Amino acid sequence: MLRVGDLQRSIDFYTKVLGMNLLRTTERPEQKYSLAFVGYGTNPEHAELELTYNHGVERYEMGSAYGHIAIGVPDVYASCDRIRAAGGSITREPGPVKGGTTVIAFVADPDGYKIELIQRANASA
Q1: Are residues 49 and 75 in the same domain?
Q2: Residues 46 and 79 reside in one and the same domain
Q3: Which of 45, 50, 61, 116 is catalytic?
Q4: Residue 72's closest CA among 41, 112, 32?
Q5: Per-residue pLDDT tens for 110-121?
Q6: Are strands 89-96 and 103-108 parallel, antiparallel or unpaired?
Q7: So what's the pLDDT on residue 65?
Q8: What does the alpha-carbon distance between residue 41 and residue 63 come to, in Å, rounded to a whole number?
Q9: pLDDT tens, position by position, 14-57
Q10: What is the strand order of the sheet 89-96 is part of?
Q11: Is 48 one of the annotated active-site residues of the chain?
Q12: CATH number, domain at 12?
């Protein structure tokens, strides 16, 4: 779960920039929060990311515990080109990981959360 400062902005990023699907939303006005669940699949075995907007909170401190989310993609270079064209922010250009051959890149979402793209031949994202 990620706490976000603007739910629609985050939904737009994860769906339009990263290509995920908006799976469902939940509104809890009495409890003063809203949720959106995004992911790449619709079968019961896929991973989902829960975006939580606490009404009236526009920004959070990252803290020292959060590192990044990792997503497997078939082609990191093509994914970065598509993300950049959609207005996304690449924070580490595609290339081999230091000391290895696995191709990675990093992007940042609108709230500053880092997302690592890892090249995987069998990925479908």
Answers
A1: no
A2: no
A3: 116
A4: 41
A5: 999 999 999 987
A6: antiparallel
A7: 79
A8: 30
A9: 999 999 999 999 999 999 999 999 999 877 778 899 999 999 99
A10: 69-73, 114-119, 103-108, 89-96
A11: no
A12: 3.10.180.10
Tokens of 111: 């709230």
* End-to-end CA, the chain: 20
Provide DSSP, the chain.
Answer: -EE-S-HHHHHHIIIIIS--EEEEEEEETTTTEEEEEEES--STTS--EEEEEETT------TTT---EEEEES-HHHHHHHHHHTT-EEEEEEEEPTTS--EEEEEE-TT--EEEEEE-TT---
Tell me which amino acid residue 73 is. Answer: V
Q: Say if 63 falls within a structural domain.
A: no
Evaluate whether residue 124 is within a structural domain. no
Q: Do 44 and 76 lie in a common domain?
A: no
Domain that holds residue 79: 69-119
State the average pLDDT for the chain. Answer: 93
User: pLDDT at position 124, please?
Assistant: 62
